[in-house]
């Protein structure tokens, strides 16, 4: 069976791509498609950054003022409540159960936890210091993962733990999101990431980006 060459391929002539009412070279149309894909990716990461930032910032505000959601009204930090006492005091599984109980309600634990929530939330909303936020947020999520201890099938009192996944649960997902946002420089779109990166002390210390 004879093999027939495509007439345009044989002559080295390529049909141009059409865009609207004008002819657009193939290389230009590819560049436009790449730009559109890049923009869509940037906007997607920026949206994820803002949503995640609101999660952390809302947690800080609710625990501070007691809006009546996760924190009952009148039980906020400003009302004398402890942001860590309920969570750490309720740890019922894992190798650090007694350690977390001893930390519950301590002033240093409250301040460190709340500073972390506020700092990570503001960093994500503004788009600056995402690498620092990723490090701090991953450490916080790791401690909270240990506190909930998903691998346990039973709590210390013998009741079922009701763990939905022994390894990957929402704290792991949040940590992965924080790392991905930092690696993608998600603060450059809809944020102050580019301006922050141009500051002299940030240029000299790239981990601050």
Number of domains: 1
Shape: globular
Sheet with the most strands, sense and barrel status = 2 strands, antiparallel
Give helix and strand order, one letter per element, not per position.
HEEHHHHHHHH
Give your account of this protein's structure.
- This protein is mainly α and 209 residues long.
- It has one domain (45-208).
- Helices cover 57% and strands 3% of the residues.
- The chain has helices spanning 7-11, 26-65, 85-89, 97-103, 107-126, 130-148, 170-183, 193-197, 200-204, and strands at 17-19, 22-24.
- It has a two-stranded antiparallel ribbon.
- The longest helix is centred in the N-terminal third of the chain and has 40 residues, at 26-65.
- Mean pLDDT is 89; it is low at 1-20.
Chart the SSEs and their pairings.
Layout: H1 7-11, E1 17-19, E2 22-24, H2 26-65, H3 85-89, H4 97-103, H5 107-126, H6 130-148, H7 170-183, H8 193-197, H9 200-204
Antiparallel strand pairs: 1-2
Notable characteristics:
209 residues; mainly alpha; two-stranded antiparallel sheet; 9 helices; 2 strands
Structure summarized in a few sentences:
By secondary structure, this protein is mainly α.
């Amino acid at each position: 069976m004879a093999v027939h060459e495509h007439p345009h391929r044989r002559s080295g002539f390529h049909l141009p791509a059409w865009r609207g009412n004008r002819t657009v070279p193939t290389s230009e149309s590819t560049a436009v498609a790449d730009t559109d894909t890049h923009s869509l990716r940037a906007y997607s990461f920026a949206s994820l950054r803002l949503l995640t930032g609101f999660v952390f910032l809302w947690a800080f505000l609710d625990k501070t003022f007691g809006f009546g959601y996760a924190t009952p009204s009148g039980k906020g930090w400003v009302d004398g409540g402890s942001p860590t006492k309920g969570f750490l005091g309720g740890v019922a599984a894992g190798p650090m159960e007694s350690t977390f109980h001893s930390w519950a309600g301590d002033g240093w634990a409250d301040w460190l936890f709340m500073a972390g929530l506020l700092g990570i939330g503001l960093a994500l909303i503004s788009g600056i210091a995402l690498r620092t936020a990723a490090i701090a947020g991953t450490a916080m999520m790791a401690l909270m993962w240990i506190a909930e201890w998903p691998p346990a099938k039973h709590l210390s009192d013998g009741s079922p733990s009701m763990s939905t996944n022994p390894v990957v649960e929402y704290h792991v997902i949040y940590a992965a999101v924080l790392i991905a946002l930092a690696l993608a420089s998600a603060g450059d779109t809809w944020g102050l990431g580019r301006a922050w990166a141009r500051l002299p002390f940030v240029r000299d210390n790239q981990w601050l980006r």
